[in-house]
Amino acid sequence: MSSKLLIFVITGLAVGGAETQLVRVATRLKQRGWDVRVVTLMPPRAYADVLEQAGIPVTSLGIRDKRPALRPIWRLARIIRDWQPVIVHSHMVHANILTRFTRLLVPVPVLVCSARSIREGGRLREWLYRLTDPLCDLTTHVCEAGAQRYIRERIVPPHKMRVVYNGVDVEQFRPDGQRREQMRRDSQMDNHFVWLAVGRLEAPKDYPTLIRAFARISDVREGTLLWIVGDGPLRRQVDALTRDMGLQLRVRFWGLRADVPNLMNAADAFVMSSSWEGLPNVLLEAQACGLSAVVTGVGGNAEVVIHEKTGFIVPPQNPTALAEAMLRLMDMPGEVRQQMGMLARQRAEQLFSLESVVTQWENLYYELLQTNNRR
């Protein structure tokens, strides 16, 4: 048994916040000397090559859907028995529950389960969390709001819950005037005010509310554009709504992009209309790039954005409130918005830098290992 063999277990590998965070943390831990391996329940659709290039093997359990099954538990138990990790760290609800049941079949010195959203499903999933809680050593959450909800609903007891924020690479995501000028010149932005939204086009992100809010803005601010970066199952629906509201010349869908830092530097402000969240990576990235933001007050958003100091927080599913806050930010003098962005950058460096978050994970692992050794 390697003293630093760590297995990450995750439901799948796709372009998403939880997956991105796992890759960032895993690669940093590998650089720090951990023997890191990743197991996915479903076949990976992204990031496998990035992990393997970093020397991190990726193994899939081959699940094709998320219905309950016994075979994946036996497969994961065999992997753990063969590799003998000192820590198993699972991410997302299906992986969390599966690793807990696997512990009935094979010894795991330390099992950490990470919840990524303030809600990870309905009553059945939360009941399974309660039922299997004795099988894990610690549950972590990405934001205080989510952790408090899990405690309040008695999904996790207080002494077994810990908050560890997502981390952002503050060197990759940083204000860059040259990037801004180049990107705006290439995109022929002229003097337009550009709002940027980044995230999968799926129900939790509530893009219809953003489109309806932007329609109100476009009626009174001609030189305003909205850039949407990402893809997902609701792409056609959101695109159709954009056309129905006559905004096709003012809203640009960029799809999936590898140059998000460039787009964030080119934009003038960030906007997020989510109905529910955990702690969105893209909001941390926008703040690290020095963007003031208008966000809905869900999940950990209010732990990132300081209302009226680094941006504005509005109620979810309220296009009018979202539009009013966006207009308020646009109407501020440029130097005031810049000051808000500078404060946002400072908070990203102080609270959410990837290096400090990885250090928190390391310290947590060592603490749990020491506790296990004393048993």
| Assembly type | single chain
Q: Tell me the number of structural domains.
A: 2
CATH class of the largest domain: Alpha Beta
Uncertain segments are none
Relevant CATH superfamily of the largest domain: Glycogen Phosphorylase B
> What spatial order of strands do you see in the largest sheet?
3-2-1-4-5-6-7
What characterizes the major β-sheet? 7 strands, parallel
Distance between the termini: 18 Å
Per the CATH scheme, the topology name of the largest domain is Rossmann fold
Mean pLDDT: 94
**Rg for CA atoms:** 21 Å
Which range does the strand content fall in?
15-25%
Number of helices, counting only DSSP H or I runs of 4 residues or more = 15
Looking at the overall shape, the CATH architecture of the largest domain is: 3-Layer(aba) Sandwich
Q: Could you write a compact summary of the structure shown?
A:
This protein is of the alpha/beta class.
Q: What topology does this entry show?
A:
Blueprint: E1 5-10, H1 17-31, E2 35-40, H2 48-53, E3 58-60, H3 71-83, E4 87-91, H4 93-102, E5 110-115, H5 123-132, E6 138-141, H6 144-152, E7 161-163, H7 177-186, E8 193-198, H8 207-220, E9 224-229, H9 235-244, E10 251-255, H10 260-266, E11 269-272, H11 281-288, E12 293-296, H12 301-304, E13 311-314, H13 319-331, H14 334-351, H15 354-374
Parallel strand pairs: 1-2, 1-4, 2-3, 4-5, 5-6, 6-7, 8-9, 8-11, 9-10, 11-12, 12-13
Helix pairs in contact: 1-15, 3-4, 4-5, 7-10, 8-13, 11-14
